[in-house]
Specification:
The protein is an alpha/beta fold. It has 13 helices and 12 strands.
C-alpha cells in the first residue's frame, strides 16, 4: 500500500458523503474524527468500509448520516473538532489514531467511541482493559511491544551485527512509546537493545540517524507516528546515507526507499471497525466490546535499498515477503 493511499484514509472530501436535507435529520449519526488531511486517494481504504457498512444496513446518506472532521495534523484543530463532534450528539464516533481517541475521551464520557490504529489503550488510560474496556470507548489497536520484538528479530536476521536500534517517534504526540520500551523489559542476552529516539524535526531525524550510523551496529525502527509517517522519504534517504538497516510499520516506507516494513494491515483494521459501529448503533455498549488487536500483518523488502547499504537479505525472508522491490 502506497503512502498516499494511507494518507487517503485520514481524509477525502469526495468519499465521505454527508447527508443533506431536512428529511435526513432523524437518521442515526456517525461522527468521524481523522487526524490527517483530505486527499483524492481516500477511496482506496474507505470503499471497503462503506461496503461493509452498507451490507450491515448502514448506507451513508440514506440510512445513516456521517459528520466528518479532518484535523490535518493540527493538535488545536483536533481538540476543536472533537468538541464540535461531541456537541452534535452523534450515536457513535469513529476515531482514527491515538490523538483523536485521546481528544474525544477528554470531550465525552458518554457518547460511544470506536477507535482504530491506536497504541497502548490501557497504558494511556483510554480503556480499563482489552477484554473489558469498561467505559464508552473500544476499538482496534495497531502497534504493541510484541511487534517491536518482531522487528528486533527481522533486523537481526538481515544484519546480525546490529546491537542497538533507535525507536523513532514524536514524544509530544505519542509519549506512549516510552511505555512500550519499559514494557520490553531487560534486553535478552544477544538481542538488539531498543532505545528511544524522540524526534520533532527533520534536522533531529538526520542527526539521530547520523549518531546511530557513526557508532556501528546501529539500526532504526519507524513506528506509527504522524511525524515519522510524514517524513518517511527523508528517513529512508538518511538511512541509506548513514548505511543503517531500518524497518517501519508502514509498507509505504519501502516504496519511499526504506529497507523493510512489517506491520498490521491498515485496510483490514479499518474494515473491522464497521461491525463494531454497527453493533453500537443497534444498542450494544462499548464497555462490553473487547478491544481487538491486529491479526493480519504484511512484510515487504526493498532489495535496492539492501544493495545500497551492503545488506544481503536471507532467502528465507524473501520467501515469506508479501512484496519485494528489486
Amino acid at each position: 500500500m502506497k503512502r498516499r493511499e494511507i494518507v487517503g484514509l485520514l481524509g477525502g472530501a469526495g468519499i465521505w458523503p454527508l447527508a443533506a436535507g431536512a428529511q435526513q435529520k432523524k437518521l442515526p449519526v456517525i461522527g468521524v474524527l481523522l487526524i490527517g488531511s483530505p486527499g483524492p486517494q481516500a477511496e482506496v481504504l474507505a470503499s471497503d468500509f462503506y461496503r461493509d457498512l452498507a451490507v450491515l444496513g448502514w448506507t451513508p446518506g440514506k440510512t445513516v448520516r456521517l459528520e466528518v472532521r479532518w484535523a490535518e495534523g493540527d493538535a488545536a484543530k483536533l481538540e476543536r473538532y472533537a468538541a464540535e463532534l461531541v456537541a452534535l450528539k452523534p450515536d457513535v464516533i469513529l476515531a482514527n489514531g491515538q490523538p483523536s481517541a485521546v481528544a474525544l475521551k477528554k470531550a465525552t464520557q458518554s457518547i460511544p467511541i470506536v477507535f482504530f490504529l491506536v497504541q497502548d489503550p490501557v497504558g494511556t488510560g483510554l480503556v480499563a482493559s482489552l477484554a473489558r474496556p469498561g467505559g464508552n470507548i473500544t476499538g482496534f489497536t495497531f502497534i504493541n511491544p510484541e511487534l517491536i520484538g518482531k522487528w528486533r528479530g527481522l533486523l537481526a536476521a538481515v544484519t546480525p551485527s546490529t546491537k542497538r536500534a533507535g525507536l523513532f517517534f514524536n514524544p509530544t504526540i505519542n509519549p506512549q512509546y516510552y511505555n512500550f520500551l519499559r514494557d520490553l523489559g531487560p534486553v535478552p542476552q544477544g538481542a538488539i537493545d531498543v532505545v528511544a529516539s524522540p524526534v520533532q524535526s527533520v534536522e533531529e531525524l538526520r542527526a539521530t540517524m547520523a549518531e546511530l550510523g557513526s557508532t556501528g551496529g546501529g539500526a532504526a525502527m519507524m513506528v506509527a507516528d504522524d511525524f515519522v509517517f510524514a517524513h518517511g522519504r527523508e528517513a529512508a534517504s538518511f538511512a541509506l546515507q548513514y548505511r543503517l538497516p531500518t524497518i517501519s510499520v508502514f509498507g509505504s516506507y519501502v516504496d519511499e526507499g526504506g529497507l523493510m516494513s512489517y506491520g498490521p494491515d491498515i485496510s483490514d483494521i479499518f474494515r473491522r471497525s464497521a461491525p463494531y459501529v454497527d453493533r453500537i448503533l443497534r444498542g450494544e455498549k462499548p464497555a462490553e466490546l473487547p478491544v481487538q488487536q491486529p491479526d493480519k500483518f504484511l512484510f515487504r523488502v526493498n532489495l535496492r535499498a539492501a544493495k545500497e547499504t551492503g545488506i544481503a537479505v536471507p532467502p528465507h525472508l524473501l520467501a515469506i515477503a508479501d512484496g519485494v522491490i528489486e
